[in-house]
Amino acid sequence: MTIWPWIVAGSPYYLPNDIGISALDCGEAFRLLSPKEQLYAHYLSRAAWYGGLVVLLQTSPESPTIYVLLQKIFRKQPPAQLEAVATAAGLSSEEYQAFLVYAAGLYANMGNYKSFGDTKFIPNLPKFKALVWESQAYKENPGEIETLWNSCSHFLYSLEDKQKQLGLGNKGITTYFSGNCCLEDAELAQKFLDSKNLSAYNTRLFKKESDGKRCYEVRLAAAAETPCSMFEFEDASFSVQRGDYAFLMEKVSQNLEKAKAYAANENQAKMLEEYIRSFTYGSVDAHKEGSRFWIKDKGPIVESYIGFIESYRDPFGSRGEFEGKSCCLNCPVASQQESTFQTVSTAIRSYDDIRQTEGFKNVSLGNVLAVAYATQKEKLTFLDEKDKDLYIKWKGPSFEVQVGLHELLGHGSGKLFVQDDKGKFNFDQAEVRNPETGELISSWYKGSETWDSKFSTIASSYEECRAECVGLYLCLNKQVLSIFGHEGEEAEEVIYVNWLNMVRAGLLGLEFYTPESKSWRQAHMQARFVILRVLLEAGEGLVTLSEITGADGRPDALITLDRSKIHTVGKSAIQKFLCKLQVHKSTADVEGGRALYEGYSAVTSDGSHNFLQFRETVLLRKEARKMFVQANTQIKGEAVELEEYESSAAGLVQSFIQRFPEDAEEVEAQLLELASRDATCWC
Fold it and tell me: Which PANTHER family match (predicted)?
């Protein structure tokens, strides 16, 4: 039997067979919608799923091909039927489960790199090809399947250093930039985009050399392919071309147009009009206009957001990954939700200029939170036994408080000082002073500069850290806790577990640090490690972190928090650090902000804690992140039907088999065309 050298117990590059997989329950909420609302939610969902395929093209060169290969195999033989084929090909039941888990991971992450952590994952079985060759898809069309296999099989398993994680230049793989781009190219391109008042959110950058001159192609995601515009900038040539992902952007726009017919009000209709304009012509300004109408659409029964949103996975921190959400309120609890915050998961980015002047919204996905953070006591690492039951009981309520404060008052606060293109300031230069120095403000954002464009590589994590600090600080306020329904002793338990969860998360964050490149692969986890460092530095026994030996005889760690010092030592430390974070951000002080943040982000073996050693312990005891199975909707007659699936790898695969029932083959052909068009750009 072939032995793959990297397939060993505990390898970080494969997904374990027992990985947690949970179905997101939305059945009750969907059935409570009116027929019109169901149609609106359906078409929003279709737009989101078509757009989601863009992520395959944003993740790695091989992701679209692996996706198409799996789709063709499973469409001919769903998981239950394929199991007999696997047995005939010589796979054990464990190996077939590993195959299903790999496929589920590819679908759940929309690519072969983890969406949370950016590391590659590979199949945990050597007989992948044997199964493919035994499949009905291969027997019916061997030439097509063999071509797909030959195109992706090397990268399917390859763990060359550069291919182990996402990154720019020699640090990893990215398809936001051509393979010959480095940090210097990203910085120059950002300057160019700023000079033309273009956002990087919906772009990719490709570089070529011509007669010794650097030539850059900036591609904007758009359904409409327009002639390129040429510019000279700092001894380089730039072309701006609309039409990236054109087929998929057209599909998104078509479904948003259909959704518009079922909009509940004028704000929703205008929001969709602007989104359609954005995805048709590649206009971020149109997306901003759509976001303005989205903000005005208060308390909708069906909530949504779609576009190139979070910039976590762009190694430079400026380009957005496509995402889409179609959410519905669970009506029996809607009044309770609306009495606290105007919400319906995860937060949705609002543009800083809109947030500061017009407002913002964010959305909390209850069915995600319900399953994502469920914890089994026996799998709860690094806590004292006396803390574990308390942690399990109060983690959910405390996390709800933290998320609400993080999103609404963390990301939702903090003024940026700006001088616009006409020279006008949004603050009084003669009055506003730096609270750290007492001096007048001496730096600010100019013209089209934004937080992301100025702080680039640290922007996402820095901002997550700032929002987390806001949550920690404000959860100490009794009035705030009472809004969430927590008072007295219960409120103190929520505070304790919220802070305990944060310092534990800081330790867990070490999983997402790569010592070889001295880089972080996940913005939130870097932020939490920084907070752990701040609270350890506060001293006075607030937080203790110790190396111990576990009950199994292997290295372990123990983190404790002195609850009697949270309101004093802890509060003071977070207040001071938060103030520094905000000052650097508000004043566009990149140099000061980078020095502060990178200093606390450093993972070393020096000082009072050997964090590199703690990282090894964290890796030894880490638990794989859960994957979610999501429902499909289909129109049958005049009604919309919801199809839900079991909480398993097979269920997740089945959901994707049925995701594009009308045009799967056309979609797959277009994905392959888009991928092959740029195949030479990644070398």
Answer: DIPEPTIDYL PEPTIDASE 3, DIPEPTIDYL PEPTIDASE III-RELATED
